[in-house]
Specification:
This protein has about 300 residues and is an alpha+beta fold. The chain has three domains: about 100 residues, Efflux pump adaptor protein, beta barrel domain (Elongation Factor Tu (Ef-tu), domain 3, Beta Barrel); about 60 residues, RNA polymerase II/Efflux pump adaptor protein, barrel-sandwich hybrid domain (OB fold (Dihydrolipoamide Acetyltransferase, E2P), Beta Barrel); about 110 residues. About 45% of the residues lie in helices and about 30% in strands. It contains six helices and 15 strands. The strands form three sheets. A six-stranded antiparallel barrel has the order 1-10-14-12-11-15. A hairpin with a 4-residue loop joins strand 11 and strand 12. The relative contact order is 0.19.
Length: about 300
């Protein structure tokens, strides 16, 4: 009987010890982390820059895309026809430009002839074989021809200038259409993974309509919150340990502090900090290299 009592008391002591160890372990694990938060990434919503039917839209949720990769295009046939029309109009405008030298060639020849006649009359006047009136008449004719040439030059230059301005305006319209044609191509802006797809091939889209959401999750950010007492213990580029909460356990990662808020805010309801009595906390961002298991919205812990 005494032996049984001794065995029972021994078992009770073992269970009591285990209970104390578990309790202490849970208490220490609760206080073992300095901050808590959730993982997030910079999400980019890619929207359409053109209106029309999506003739090609080759993406799927979960697909990895690269920066500057074309993932589809919007119907651009009407824009192309309009561009062809403007180019034909531009060619017609440019062909109407005057060749000034050819246009004034006849007047130039008349002036040259008049200058020769003037010189001849002046020589005859010196030899008393011509009158002064003949010389004056020739000078008057030469002045008239020169004024006619000046007027022709002015009119032709003004006409060409107007043509050049119209051609420049037409060129700007063609450049505008080229830009619109380029925006019909759906170009992915960053390296990342497609999180959500909002449109499908052959649907009609419009300017500004969201097509898909993408984020670079190769490096994921943990937004955590620290108290004012912890603020003096953390600095930018400081390496820290991050623990991802998988529900069944924690996995350790190496992180780097990339941002510390300079303004305090009230503790978010979904976040538990080390000092539960603190009303004001500071947000920090910690970049963590993602091994593929970290997900946006997952909870994480930080140890400074």
């Amino acid at each position: 009987m005494k032996t049984k009592l001794i065995l029972l008391s021994h078992k009770s002591a073992i269970w009591a010890s285990l209970f104390i160890m578990i309790f202490l372990s849970s208490c220490s694990s609760k206080d073992n982390y300095d901050a808590s938060g959730t993982f997030e990434a910079t999400e980019v919503i890619v929207s359409s820059e053109a209106s029309g039917k999506l003739l090609d839209f080759n993406i799927d949720e979960g697909k990895t895309l690269f920066a500057n990769q074309q993932v589809g295009y919007v119907d651009s046939l009407q824009l192309y026809y309009k561009k062809m029309q403007l180019q034909a109009n531009l060619k017609a405008i440019q062909s109407s430009r005057s060749d000034i030298q050819k246009q004034i060639a006849a007047t130039q020849q008349q002036i040259a002839t008049a200058e020769v006649d003037k010189q001849r009359y002046e020589n005859l006047l010196k030899a008393n074989a011509a009158t002064q009136k003949q010389v004056d008449d020739q000078n008057s004719l030469l002045q008239v021809l020169r004024k006619q040439r000046a007027a022709q030059l002015s009119n032709l230059e003004n006409a060409n200038s107007s043509i050049d301005e119209n051609a420049a305006a037409m060129t700007y319209q063609i450049d505008q259409l080229n830009d619109q044609l380029h925006k019909c191509k759906i170009i992915n802006p960053i390296n990342g993974t497609v999180l959500t797809k909002y449109a499908e091939t052959y649907e009609v889209t419009s300017f500004g309509k969201p097509l898909y959401m993408i984020a670079n999750i190769d490096t994921i950010t943990l937004r955590a919150y620290i108290t004012s007492d912890q603020l003096t213990k953390i600095k930018l580029r400081q390496p820290v340990k991050v623990y991802a909460d998988w529900g069944k356990g924690l996995k350790e990662y190496q992180g780097v502090v990339t941002w510390i808020s300079d303004k305090a805010e009230f503790t978010p309801k979904t976040i538990q900090t080390r000092d539960e009595r603190a009303n004001l906390v500071y947000a920090v961002k910690i970049d963590v290299k993602n091994d593929g298991y970290l997900k946006i919205g997952m909870y994480g812990e930080v140890k400074l």
